[in-house]
Amino acid sequence: EITSLLSLCGGQFSGEQEIRVNSPFWILNIPSEEMARGLMKRTVCAKSIFELWGHGKSAGELYASLKNYPTDKMLPYLQSDSTYKVHIHTFNKTLTQAQKIKKIDALEFLPFKGKVNLKNPEHVFWILEDYGMDPNDVPEEPIHLYFGRWIADGQRELIESYSVKKRHFIGNTSMDACLSFIMANHGRVKPNDIVYDPFVGTGGLLISSAHFGAYVCGTDIDYNTIHGLGKASRKNQKWRGPDENIRANLRQYGLEKYYLDALVADFSRPIWRKGILFDAIITDPPYGIREAPRRMGSQKETVKSVERSTENHFFVSSSYHLSDIFFDLLKFGAEYLVMGGRLVYWLPIYRPEYTEEIIPRHPCLKLISNCEQLLSSHTSRRLITMEKVKEFKDQDENSYLLDGQYMPYRGHNSFREKYFSGVTKRIAKEEKDNQK
Question: Mean pLDDT score of the chain, rounded to an integer?
Fold first, then answer.
């Protein structure tokens, strides 16, 4: 998320910067404070950003580092007519108030000339102490210390204010608010973009993009969901109300002006004329756990499966293999994204069989990132971000990898079967343990 937002703000992520996986703190080289503020106006992963004045693996190293920090960079924030306060944040340890005061007093060598104001200071400084990630093995002294000037906070409050629990219209697969904003940030969504979700459901992914000023639209094969009809997904509610729909969700957050429309359509069938271009495609395809992957079938399949909606809309539904969903998604992205536009989607994975080679590829799309979210001990889903780097040509129409690389996705509901095989084994084990 951070690397995507840095590139959106005009910056570049330096590969030399240390990524400390086992630490909540991260040192970034950002060219300007303006860019840092722009980054924090979007991120839901980062909590705060600071101008780093000094750091070290011990208090002595921290103080030596602070003494080497250029005085001319400190002085603008330490003037006699200014006010300030110092915070202490400890990760994985709680300090008493006396311990905190002692650590603050130890910084008296810094040339503070202003007055302390605890309620409304002009400048806020933080001491950050890292006591590791293991709550069962907390060291006596911090393993790393940082001191800096607070610049801005991230957008973590969006997770609560856009919570699905408070949303007007939800479904079985409504995306968690935090993940929705992360996906929009991976897609580098910006004001006046056009963002499309081909498996739109109740529109959860449209909301986060609209929050960032993009115009949003989507399609879904489910007539009832698009029109807000049928059975409700909310507990203690049998049927959806008269105004439970995607438009109402955007209206709830004051974002209705960014809503273009949602269409009932089968993603496996072309409906867009050539030349329609999207700035980002952000979606969560169905993979057979809570929603079955479906597409329009032939009339020969009528006897096997006929579905009837509340409005007497009949259609024939057939299975939509996972491999075909991802083939179609990449091909669509390659053809309909603007150059530099991004495709962001979730790929379900059976972990014992996972290798990076099974991630679908396309010659027009470059893989930007691949992040894992665990679903169970044996399954997960990968958040895949791809960027269009080459114009789509007719010869790219069926540019897939070798079939052998997609074997884990061949066959109807293969992921679903593997997912539930693990659930069945777990239930059987629990029953066996209970009998003991």
Answer: 86
